[in-house]
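Task 17 of the worksheet. Students: predict the tertiary structure of the chain below and write it out as structure tokens. Keep your answer in the requested format; marks are given for formatting as well as content.
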Amino acid sequence: VSSIEELTAPIELYNSLVGLERYDEAYAVFQARLNYHTLFVLSANRERIELLAELFPDGMHNPPRLTRITNHAPTLGYLGQSYDYVGYPKKAIDMFRRSKELNDRYYPTKGTCISLCLLTRTLRAVGELRESELAAQQAWSVAHEAGIPYWQADSLKHLGLTYAVRGELRRSGRALRRALQFFRKQPWYGNEEATLIFLAQWALWAG
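Model answer:
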């Protein structure tokens, strides 16, 4: 897929299902045929917001009209990511916090880590560095207790970046290097390279 026009068929199907109030089927179409391409390939975040908002016919402050409660947290997380990428960090933070509350109840390991890592990144971007640090530390604690190496590494990566922004360069370097050790042990696509980029940024700040 190289343009949003190539997704016309699944978007039309999605909209038709929403129009029929078949929200769970629309969500399944979004997951299977739209989520990856609109986020990672096209960065079509305004379109994502428009699509996902249709799952909230009772208003964005209310839960989405989805039967399975376990689908609520991912939907809020998807919206948060897109709000963040189009420049609405306050809306993103609200979505991530709501997503975390649900994940704490229904998906308390990986789901909670995902919400916390998304939250710490956006909090760092708006200068809420203490909250960003706490979110990253909580993500590390949850991942460490559950024995999930990927999220241990990802939380360390975010913790290292937050330390760097706060000027705590020694702690930042340690956290980023530990994250890199985790990522080098597992073939998680792109994460070793991303962490090396963050270490390069850290090195520039450290002189």
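Marker's comment: Residues 49 and 135 are 25 Å apart (CA to CA). The chain has a mean pLDDT of 96.
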